[in-house]
Amino acid sequence: MIELKDVSYGYGGSDLLSGVSLSLQPGSFHFLTGPSGSGKTTFLRLCYLDLMATAGRVELFGQPARKMTRDDIAHARRRIGVVHQDCQFLDHLPVSQNVALPLEVAGRPENPADLEELLAWVGLAERADALPPELSGGERQRAALARAVIMSPDVVLADEPTGNVDWEMSLRLLSLLVELNRMGKAILIATHDLNLIRAAKKQVSARVLRIRDRQLQLAGADL
Amino acid sequence: MIELKDVSYGYGGSDLLSGVSLSLQPGSFHFLTGPSGSGKTTFLRLCYLDLMATAGRVELFGQPARKMTRDDIAHARRRIGVVHQDCQFLDHLPVSQNVALPLEVAGRPENPADLEELLAWVGLAERADALPPELSGGERQRAALARAVIMSPDVVLADEPTGNVDWEMSLRLLSLLVELNRMGKAILIATHDLNLIRAAKKQVSARVLRIRDRQLQLAGADL
Amino acid sequence: MRGAGLLAAVLYPRADRVVPPSGHTARLTIFTAAAMAFLAVFALALSLATGRLAERWASELARTATVRVSAPQGQVETQLRAALEVLRTTPGVASARVLDEAEERALLEPWFGPDLPLDTLPIPKLIEVIEGEPGIDAEGLRLRLRAEAPGAVLDDHTRWRQPLVKAADRLRMLGLVAIVLIAGATAAMITLAANSALAANGQVIRVLRLVGARDSYIARAFVRQFTLRAFAGALAGTVLGVAAIAFLPDAETAGNFLTGLGFRGAEWLWPLAIAPLAAVVAFVATRVAAFRVLRSLT
Amino acid sequence: MRGAGLLAAVLYPRADRVVPPSGHTARLTIFTAAAMAFLAVFALALSLATGRLAERWASELARTATVRVSAPQGQVETQLRAALEVLRTTPGVASARVLDEAEERALLEPWFGPDLPLDTLPIPKLIEVIEGEPGIDAEGLRLRLRAEAPGAVLDDHTRWRQPLVKAADRLRMLGLVAIVLIAGATAAMITLAANSALAANGQVIRVLRLVGARDSYIARAFVRQFTLRAFAGALAGTVLGVAAIAFLPDAETAGNFLTGLGFRGAEWLWPLAIAPLAAVVAFVATRVAAFRVLRSLT
Ligand SMILES: Nc1ncnc2c1ncn2[C@@H]1O[C@H](COP(=O)(O)OP(=O)(O)OP(=O)(O)O)[C@@H](O)[C@H]1O
Ligand SMILES: Nc1ncnc2c1ncn2[C@@H]1O[C@H](COP(=O)(O)OP(=O)(O)OP(=O)(O)O)[C@@H](O)[C@H]1O
Ligand SMILES: [Mg+2]
Ligand SMILES: [Mg+2]
To answer: What ipTM does the predicted assembly reach?
Structure first.
């Protein structure tokens, strides 16, 4: 559903990623690791066209990125759930409305029961009416994950979604993503948390990718 | 140096923390854990007077918080290095100037060699001239930690300082804090990362606190 | 799409919620629109009043001149006829008429009292000249009169009022210039305020783009808010300005040289145009600014 | 501390760096200051010009009135004397003088030509009255004249120009009101712009507080930037406004009824005051806003 072929990218200076390829197929589960500053976030941004590859081909749902208009990109993003590393919200709307925002923007009706269930799953049932600036760091990440999955998107791209939550909550969030994966969605998680990767491998057949020397490599069996 | 006695705090509603006491002495090393949303960040904010306790006594460097003027608080903060969970910077100044900001604000001369060494230690030597919005998540955390320790403050309060960095870098940052601790500084780190706590315990005699049921408890031997 | 935008922007309030409802920039926009509308009302009133003034003065002058014919007893009739003939063939003269005795008496009364023995006096005859459009060429007429009726002297005494009309016209121009300046400054300020609101709401825009909102959806929310704010502000400013002018001490009582600063009849429609104009400016400014900002993001 | 603040704010540029150097709010502030200064220059020019105008008209009138004494041949002298006596004892009369024959002839020439046999005519005597300060009470004088010299008629013909002076005074008032409005609107806009800049820079303030910056340090940086911006903007607006007025087609040539809109002599100092005033307003507004925002944070 998301296809990168020989993609390169650099912020002005030398290339950060060069000749990177990846194909996210329905039902696939990927982890992305690599040292801090190696380009994980950059890679994810290339996937949802927040950045445009300087070389190579990117395809979203069969459409080549270069041929997509701004509206095409907006529509494609409705099929991609993104969890940013620094979770941003509409600070003037309560958590529940922020989580439901993708539905609102797409003009889809929201089902209050579904929303409640999702909020309860990520442990935000009691904070549903709080404003985002009143959330704790972990609560923000959970709200961001809830927002990313509420449309039940075809692809979920999550950037360090468990960096600020405790281990129990990490497993809970992981199981949500595993559940989606079993429904055929493609999942890609950038993380430093090796324990999380190990826990996931017990539940699904996840592939672990590692950025090294500007390349995407399959990580060894040590994980 | 920071003393909390029977401190309570709640955001408007019911108390989040009640009757909490802690004394940060020179050379002490504390970890603060607890589930996401339990009040770790709140506790740290009480320590550097970003929040004012609704009950109980807070003392900073021997001064009771209630008697401190705004300028007193500003001066006290120069002796406390804080790493926020969401690291904020002056986005228009390069990383090096952001890291040196506490010196600038205190009117102290900055030593370029020291600054360079510190930046190299946290792995930001090559990003010294970048603007904060151009940093990766982990780079931001490292810059925030560098800013917190540049004045070699008497107390370092760090909120989840390794949430976005890889394991090797986490150890590197930890060793920086251990080094400071050996120089007699008090260190308090809020974190979910149990591996980090275990690693620290091998180097210093750290006490692990846990927030549970609005109370601060000493964590068991499982850590 | 562009045309439908205005309608959609006004009728579609749902997208509004995604933009923070208020804030300092909002207050700034509303206040700016109000203050500028207030000033515009004054400039408009000044312009209209001086326009009226110029018109009144011009019409009061009635564009008249006088030819005085004084000659030895026997020649008066001949010279009078000659002067009238000259005037008849002078371009710019609408009509020329010899004043009768009663009229001359009325004219002289302030100087000589009512009992003047007109018939026994060698009083000159007076010809009242009404100018047409364009006016007469006074110098040319003087030359011709000197040739054909040496006893006739042209006194275009009405000219002394001409500068008044010019002055009023200049004031009106000044008022118009002020209106143009105010309108321009308002447009620029609203544009800058819109830009600074958009810049301040960078996070809102990023979040909306992230969850798949189309540019038009995002722009709509901002455009609608700004249009409403500019409209509301300008409306308030206009109402205040009109009220201030209505409660101004009435000039009419101070002598009718200057007409009141208020609005008369259909002139009341002018201030009504201010708020919609401000709204249109805000609509265009915000829309352009919004799409510019949006296009700078991926 | 407060007093030293201004000096420190201007002389201490180091803290400046911590505030983002520019942005949309900066541009908005500069432009607002410039536009308002531009308008203020025009309002000032209008006010000063109309003030001059009113003065000139008032002095040109020379505050004169005429008393016409017409009576049967024998009584003229008596009535003239009586009228002069009345005038001598009337408060507000500076001097009263009977016109001699030559003067009367000059006055009547436009109507009768130069060859008027004045001595054979029953022409009234004219007394020229110069008013003092305050002017005469025309109605009271008329009543007294009617009683003491029935043949004397007061013609305060100069009164017809009074409305002109009133009109000019009203215009000057209008100019002053415009200046006050513009100044008030400018102050409010700068205050709001400062507030919105402070709100937009919440992160800067939080970071600075976190690293132990004192309120005065933070406020200083903002205050200095805003003061400089307001000053620079107002200066640019003033220069543009003065230039625009200087290059305005000269009114003097259009007849000397309306004096030019320009500045004369010491009046040039007035526009010079605009930029410093704007700076002071910005200084106070930003300072108050900054400390208000800062105190709302812990
Ligand atoms: N907008 C930008 N302009 C310039 N350089 C940038 C920009 N964004 C990121 N970088 C640089 O690119 C490199 C990779 O950044 P990226 O955010 O992709 O790293 P990451 O792998 O996500 O790291 P982390 O684990 O710390 O989040 C970093 O060195 C970063 O400083
Ligand atoms: N400004 C605020 N207003 C209201 N409630 C708040 C505010 N800030 C935090 N809270 C709430 O207080 C609780 C504790 O927040 P805190 O940030 O201290 O948690 P934390 O232990 O740091 O969690 P995390 O590990 O997720 O960062 C949370 O439920 C949070 O929603
Ligand atoms: Mg990253
Ligand atoms: Mg926290």
So the answer is: 0.83
